[in-house]
Design brief:
By secondary structure, this protein is an alpha+beta fold. The protein is 45% helix and 15% strand. Strands 2-1-3-4 form a 4-stranded mixed β-sheet, covered by helices on one side.
């Protein structure tokens, strides 16, 4: 059984990305949420993550950290699902994913990843 340790899906797109893909691929997993920037997070993160950050995916004694590495591993577990079959389209999809991933590390998201109530 896979275990995905994440922060807040509404505030952390890094946590949200592998969660969405695991759900999309219909891979069974246990979700462990650690509230970011809290005493609980700082007390418990060392138990799960070798880097002290989320997300991290546990598969037995294997620890995979960083959302893009988790997504690649999940795709492999699902027999390559999640990527286009055509190698050229797959290359473009990987380029878009890498660009999104690296850009998100350089700048903050404009706001929470949730729908706002209509006024």
């Amino acid at each position: 059984m896979l275990t995905l340790v994440i922060g807040d899906k509404q505030l952390s797109s890094w946590s949200l990305r592998p969660w969405i893909l695991l759900r999309h691929l219909d891979l069974p997993f246990e979700e462990v949420r650690l509230p970011l920037d809290t005493p609980r997070f700082h007390q418990e993160i060392g138990r799960w993550s070798p880097t002290g950050r989320v997300p991290v995916l546990l598969d037995g004694d294997l620890r995979i950290w960083d959302s893009i590495a988790i997504c690649e591993y999940a795709s492999e577990l699902a027999g390559g699902a999640g990527w286009p079959e055509d190698s050229r389209l797959r290359a473009i999809a990987r380029s878009v994913s890498a660009e999104m991933h690296s850009a998100s590390r350089r700048c903050a998201a404009p706001g929470p990843c949730r729908r706002r109530a209509a006024a």
